[in-house]
Amino acid sequence: MAFLLTVRPLRAAQTLDVYFIDVEGGQATLFVSPSGQSMLVDTGWPDFAGRDADRIVAAAKVAGVKRIDYLVVTHYHADHVGGVPQLAERIPIVHFVDHGPRDVETDPMAQFLFKSYENVASKGNHILAQPGEKIPISGIDVEIVSAAGDEIAPPLPGAGEPNPLCATTPRREVDPGENAQSVGMMITYGKFRMVDLGDLTWNKELDLVCPDNKLGTVDVYLSTHHGMNLSGSAAIVHALHPRVAIMNNGAKKGGSPEAWQAIHSSPGLEGFWQLHYAVGGGPANNVAADFIANQDAVDGNSIKLSAEPDGTFSVTNRRNGRSERYGAGK
Q1: Where along the chain do its domains lie?
Q2: What global pTM score does this model have?
Q3: How many CB atoms sit inside 10 A of residue 99's CB?
Q4: Per-residue CA distances from 292 to 42, 151, 247, 251, 282 (Å)
Q5: Distance, CA of 275 to CA of 26 (rounded, Å)
Q6: What is the pLDDT of residue 11?
Q7: pLDDT tens digits, residue range 4-48?
């Protein structure tokens, strides 16, 4: 208990800082609350000599974070949960948040990944992610909007408007796998709102915004499923009406032209940033080089976001220092 009550130094700036860490097409997003508490969403891939765990620890060091207060595992695929054992060897993890055990994938690799995660998580405190509940990180509001194939029933405050794009967006074949189980979250700091839906797939995304948009609008949209065309229909992206989008793609994973165009064409979009140049997209389906953190296949550069409670925020490409400031939304 004494460990949990360790006094933290006051932070100089009262901002929510978010580090979008390059794990080569997986997810590892580090949130540092104004209170100094940290929340890491996913841990990237296993192996590669601890490459992704090292990149996460390096970002934590820059952020002044000495432990992960809350680790959210959106789902049990290798590019999201695979790095947990290696990360736990490098930095303390206090709370583990996940959608619970589900026998939706039972092949040997899936079983190995879950067992490896469970062995580490059993040594910490466990929180079962359930739609409508919150992760109690001090200083920000983190509400779970999807988990284990379920989603919130009543709309979030201020949301619930009919979504006209639903009528022209067909559903697809049901996804029976782990992606559809993803833990999705709405992160709020004052007037600033950001959504992270993990690898939630097409139909499950539609359940959140059709026939009515239960999420409302956001300032920042982290592309679902790395910008793959299995997710990210215009029906959800345009309903979210993001001011800025960040795509956590790899050089040859995600960043599909269809998902990229759904974001690029979203009404009111002020900024679009990518972790990697998407090789398969070509010049027509990539943002300008200044807004891409990694131009080559393996680089490791991150993108940083800093948000203030009035809704003002900045985004910085840590490869070249390019930074843009976005004013408070309406």
Answers
A1: 16-321
A2: 0.95
A3: 25
A4: 21, 32, 10, 11, 13
A5: 11
A6: 47
A7: 333 344 444 599 999 999 999 999 999 999 999 999 999 999 999
The greatest distance separating any two alpha carbons of the chain, rounded to the nearest whole angstrom, comes to 56
Beta bridge partners of 273: 246
| Alpha carbon distance, N-terminus to C-terminus of the chain | 43
* CATH class label, 16-321: alpha beta
Model pLDDT for residues 211-267, shown as the tens digit of each residue: 999 999 999 999 999 999 999 999 999 999 999 999 999 999 999 999 999 999 999
| 93 and 68 Cβ atoms separated by less than 8 Å | yes
Rounded to 5 degrees, what angle do the CA atoms 194, 197, 199 make? 145
> Residue 9's pLDDT is what?
43
321 neighbors 303 (Cβ within 8 angstroms): no
Residue 75 DSSP code: -
